[in-house]
Write a structure and sequence with these properties.
The chain is an alpha/beta fold. It folds into three domains: about 5-190, Rossmann fold (3-Layer(aba) Sandwich); about 205-360, no CATH class; about 365-540, no CATH class. It contains 20 helices and 17 strands. A seven-stranded mixed beta sheet has the order 3-2-1-4-5-7-6, with helices on both faces. The chain has a four-stranded antiparallel beta sheet with strand order 12-17-16-15. It has a two-stranded antiparallel sheet with strand order 8-9. Strand 16 (about 480-490) and strand 17 (about 495-500) form a beta hairpin.
Length: about 550
């Protein structure tokens, strides 16, 4: 869809919040400056860094600026849907979002010009980043609130370039002249023309926020022996556990959000009352501004963490369907998001990101699993693929470029080690962790293909003996009967033998062929793989996909 068509669609849905995509020239100026500041002085490689785009649109600027972690705040759900799956949406409304705890290297923003001043001021005051890049009208230097924010952060500003949106290369033209402004918040020094940077910010954004909201002048004692984070976590957990009835009636997301907002309001109110006391009295009591700020910061952090963790517990039906490495990547992303505000919009944005990414992960991990089991003894060509491969093509762990194939239901894999007998070789055998991950991933993919395996014990917790088969079962979702999904034999020399349920292998092969683009429909799958059309129809598109109902389930009242 062209930008003009996209803008028209945004207007039709009342979601055009001044979407003017940043031009390539502007992004090139920002990229060049980032490289000059963040790159290794002994390398000409473009640096990898984390970035937050506030008002990210369809994500094109983030994709151009960094290959590192990408975070976005964007109000238009249509634009969020068009963002690359590597982009994590951490908020939808800047003014309902606190940036203090969202740590990243760079913040970029091409704000709505009708209120760029308030937008830019909030970013500057709350940014927990080394560098800020703003695409803002040239009159920014006359904005007193923005200038005050820059001064409060003791920041350095520099105009990198000046551009107009009224040029042929602008995807959406406007008679606006803008500066590309860099605002530097980190401590750094110069020596012989070379810049040395520090991860330390000149002014901590939380300290600035605390000073604006609270006004005690006492500077006595530090209360360093207190653990306010643990205190607030314990209180929040107790509230959640005792009010399950409210969660059931109002829906998980809304109930948790209400709990969080009430806790946060009470917490800030307590500190406001303390700070309203006479400064001399606070000094006599041994209370300092520094101690109060530290306590409040830790309590807010603990409050966010406990509510996000409660929500993540309810993601298990989704994350349990991810393979080992994929699940860890997703959980790492979720853990990194625990510092953002716990609001319904942020929760729904994060859930939407999870669903969008997991659907792709479900397909990717199926392909990866089959390719891990692709060895010469396990491969059967499609009927139309008459090409054969010489023995040398499989040597040294290589896999030749096979055009179209399926796997036999009997699999033989040569592993570096299948069983572990301990350092001296005198212990009872346990399954090697790499082999255990493979078998667990096979169970996960089988579950996504309709073979219920979620209640099966993981491979690593089972008893293993060399050459003895171990059975992995599934439960038929229609009849409730258990049957064997696959059996595995691990041998002392490192060989792993698998015998996979033929119905499961049929689904695995058909979905692999579909995802690789080798078969376009059930009839083609039947013809190529020598199976019935009925079998092919049952297998085609059988891999799990999450829909919007998964997101709505979190918001709906619980049964």
């Amino acid at each position: 869809m062209s930008t003009l068509a996209l803008v028209s669609a945004l207007k039709d849905h009342s979601e055009d919040f001044e979407f003017y995509p940043t031009t390539d020239e502007m992004l090139s100026a920002v990229r060049k400056d980032i490289q000059a500041i963040l790159s290794d002085p002994f390398s000409d490689k473009y640096p990898i860094f984390s970035a937050l785009d506030v008002g990210a649109g369809d994500g094109r600027a983030l994709m151009r600026l960094t290959d590192g972690d990408r975070y976005a705040i964007e109000k238009s759900l249509m634009l969020v849907e068009r963002q690359d799956r590597s982009i994590v949406t951490v908020g939808t409304d800047l003014f309902a979002q606190v940036l203090l705890d969202l740590r990243c290297d760079v913040i970029f923003s091409n704000p709505p010009y009708s209120h760029f001043g308030a937008w830019s001021e909030k970013i500057v005051r709350e940014a927990n980043a080394k560098l800020i890049y703003l695409i803002i009208p040239v009159r920014w230097q006359n904005d007193k609130s923005l200038q005050s924010a820059i001064e409060s952060r003791k920041a350095e500003t520099e105009v990198l370039a000046q551009f107009s949106f009224d040029t042929p290369d602008a995807d959406r033209r406007a008679r606006t002249v803008v500066d590309v402004v860099r605002i530097r918040l980190d401590k750094h020094s110069h020596n012989r023309g070379r810049s040395y940077r520090s991860n330390e910010l000149r002014v901590d954004p939380f300290d600035l926020w605390f000073e604006q909201h609270f006004a005690p002048q006492s500077t006595v004692a530090d209360c360093s022996n207190l653990d306010p984070k643990a205190t607030i976590e314990a209180r929040a957990k107790k509230l959640i556990s005792t009010d399950r009835e409210l969660i059931t009636s109002r829906g998980l997301v809304q109930a948790l959000s209400d709990f969080y907002q009430n806790d946060l309001s009470d917490l800030v109110g307590d500190y406001e009352r303390i700070c309203g006391l006479d400064p001399v009295l606070l000094g006599e009591l041994g209370v300092s501004t520094e101690a109060l700020a530290k306590g409040l910061k830790l309590k807010i952090e603990g409050l966010k963490h406990v509510y996000w963790r409660e929500l993540f517990e309810n993601f298990r039906p989704v994350t349990s369907r991810l393979a080992t490495k994929t699940r860890q990547r997703v959980m790492d992303k979720l853990q990194a998001s625990m510092s953002i505000d716990f609001t319904p919009d942020n929760v729904h944005a994060l859930c939407a990101w999870l669903i969008k990414n997991c659907n792709q992960y479900f397909d990717d991990q199926l392909i990866e699993l089959v390719e891990r089991m692709t060895k010469k003894a396990n491969v059967i060509n499609y009927k139309s693929n008459v090409k054969t491969f010489a023995e040398e093509g499989w040597r040294y762990g290589r896999t030749p470029e096979i055009e179209r194939y399926k796997l036999d239901h009997r699999i033989i894999l040569e592993c570096w080690k299948a069983l572990d007998y301990g350092y001296f070789g005198d212990q009872s055998p346990t399954l090697d962790s790499t082999v255990a991950d493979l078998l667990n991933d096979l169970m996960t993919v089988a579950n996504n293909l309709g073979f219920e395996t979620r209640h099966e014990a993981p491979a690593g917790r089972r008893e293993w003996e060399a050459g003895q088969k171990v059975l992995f079962h599934f439960t038929d979702r229609k009849t409730g009967q258990r049957a064997v999904a696959f059996e595995a034999k691990a041998h002392k020399k490192g060989t792993l033998h698998l015998k996979v349920n033929q119905r499961l292998m049929c689904r695995l092969n058909v979905e692999f062929g579909r995802l690789k683009g080798w078969v376009r429909n059930a009839q083609e799958a039947a013809d190529e793989m020598d199976i019935s059309v009925t079998q092919a129809q049952a297998a085609f598109h059988s891999n799990l996909r999450l829909g919007n109902d998964a997101l709505l389930a979190l918001a709906a009242p619980l049964p």
